[in-house]
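Box 3.1 A note on notation
Throughout this textbook, protein chains are presented in two layers. The first layer is the amino acid sequence; the second is a C-alpha cell string describing backbone geometry. Keep the layers aligned when reading.
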Amino acid sequence: MNVGITQAAGNVFGVDPDSPGATQSKKLSAPAWTASLQYQIDPSNMVYFNQRGSFRSGNLNGTVAPFDDPVRGGPANLFKNEKVHDFEVGYKFNGEIGSAPAQFNIAAYKIIVKDAQRALYAVVGGAPAGFTVNVPEAVTKGIEVDANIGLTDWLDVGFNMAFTDAKYTKTLVPIPFVGNLSVDSYPDSPKWSGSANVVVKFPVPSNLGAMDLRADFYGQTHTFFSSTNGTSTPGTRLDGYSTIALRYSWKDIMESNVSAALFVRNLTDKVYHISGYALGASNGVNTWYPGEPRTIGAELSVKF
C-alpha cells in the first residue's frame, strides 16, 4: 500500500509546493491471517480456539510540518502500521437446561498490539499540534460471558459481562524535536462492564399479535479518554455509570404486517459522560461529552 501527502499552494506550513519536501510518500505492507480450531463435543456444546493477525495502515500526519527525522531518517510525520495479534479460547452452549431453552458463551482472550496508533497533542515549535503517533506496545486481556434463558413461555432473561485489563506495556513514545512522551492511561476501556435484560411476554390472543415488555440495565466502571491522564492531559477520567431502558413491542398487529413499539432510554434521566476530547496539552481545555438524556420515542414498521 502506498500512502502520500502533498502540500498545496498557500499551505499553513509555508512549504513551496514545487520543492522536493512538498511531496511525501511511503510504501507500507503487512500480512493478515485467521486460524481457527473448533471441536463439537455434542449438538449443544462446542469449544474453540482462534488466532488472528491483522494491521491498520500507517500514514502521514497532515497537521504537522513535513520534515525528515534526523535520527531515524524518512518523513518525521509518518506513523507506522499498527499490527495486532490476538488469541481467543472459548466455550459455547446452545440447548436446553431442563425444559428451558438456553444459550451460554464464555471466552478468554489476549490482544497484543505493536505500534498502536493513538492521537496525542503536544506543543511543537511553540505551537499546539495534534497528530497520530505509534505507541510501541499495548496488551489487552479479558474475559467475556453472556447467557440467555427462557425461564417460562412468558419470561426470558439474559445478561452479559466483560472484564477488560488493557494497558500500555511499553510507554515511551519518541516524538521528533519534542522528545519522549509517556503514555499511562488506556482510553475507552472500562475494567468492568455488563448488562442484564428481562422480557415479559403478555398472554394475549394470537390474532391480536405478540406483545412484550423488555427492561435493560447497563453499567460500567470508569474510563479515560486520553492516553496521558497522568502526564500531559490530566482530567480525562470519566466516572462509571449505569442506565435503565424500557421497551414495549406489539408485533404483527391484528395479524397484519405492521408492528409498533414505545421506548424510553435512560429512564432515570441520569447525567453521565461517554467520551471526551483531550486538548489539555495543546490549549488547556478538555471537553467531556454527555450521554443520551432521558429519551422517549415510538416506532412503527411495516413488512413488505
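The radius of gyration is 25 Å. The mean pLDDT is 90.
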